[in-house]
Design a protein that fits this description.
By secondary structure, the chain is mainly α. It has nine helices and two strands, in the order αααααβααααβ. Helix content is 68%, strand content 2%. The N and C termini lie far apart (43 Å).
Length: 217
């Protein structure tokens, strides 16, 4: 078992090293976590900022220190905009489309299962907190979100996304109902593996966008 765990950990490190740093992913991560915390009663701007800075530390464990540093910079410089948009109930998808920096799509590989799960659960959280809290209705909405993903990531991503929704809607819905964060849900779905612990073992102080851009640079 120990040998197997070491191999899994090594594979995760290799994947992270090969993936490279994606500033837009960092921004998307910040907005996804901000939306999660905001909908879980962290509605004070200062408290939200502190939670997001802790999330940036966790991001560093998954993506490396460059990602953590950029994540921290986004939080420190753009917390006012982030908080204002959350108060205005703008969803992450709309924030990403209001881009000031766009990464060339032709240079990007097809996203992996973890990235697709990241996107999918972020959309699920948004819809769940905006009154689409029936499992059947959520299934329909997420299937539509998979179609939107194809505009930016290609048909392979759409196929993977729809298969994930169809196979995992029960777990997705159960985790949303339980208030689990997006990372924990993707971990529960066995789509994301890395050094980050499960939700229950996170410290008590707290913890790919559709359009490859962000307004928070």
């Amino acid at each position: 078992m120990l040998k197997y765990l070491l191999l899994v950990a090594f594979a995760a490190v290799v994947v992270i090293a090969q993936r490279g740093h994606d500033p837009c992913h960092d921004c998307d991560f910040v907005i996804r976590q901000a939306e999660h915390h905001f909908h879980n009663n962290i509605t004070d701007k200062t408290a939200l900022k502190q939670e997001l800075l802790v999330e940036c530390q966790w991001l560093g464990r998954r993506e490396g220190q460059q990602a953590a540093a950029h994540c921290t910079d986004v939080v420190n410089k753009q917390i006012d905009k982030i908080f204002a948009d959350l108060q205005a109930a703008k969803m992450k998808f709309v924030l990403a489309l209001a881009a000031v920096v766009v990464v060339a799509l032709a240079q990007r590989p097809t996203p992996g299962p973890c990235q697709i799960c990241d996107y999918l659960i972020a959309q699920a959280v948004h819809h769940f907190h905006n009154n689409i809290n029936d499992k059947g209705a959520l299934l329909t909405q997420l299937t539509q979100e998979c179609n939107e993903l194809g505009r930016y990531e290609g048909q392979d991503a759409v196929t993977q996304c729809k298969a994930m929704v169809a196979a995992q809607i029960d777990t997705i819905y159960a985790d949303l109902t339980a208030g689990k964060d997006p990372w924990q849900t993707c971990f529960d779905l066995h789509e994301c593996f890395g050094t980050e612990p499960t939700h229950g073992t996170r410290p008590s102080q707290g913890p790919e966008a559709v359009a490859r851009g962000a307004r928070y640079f």
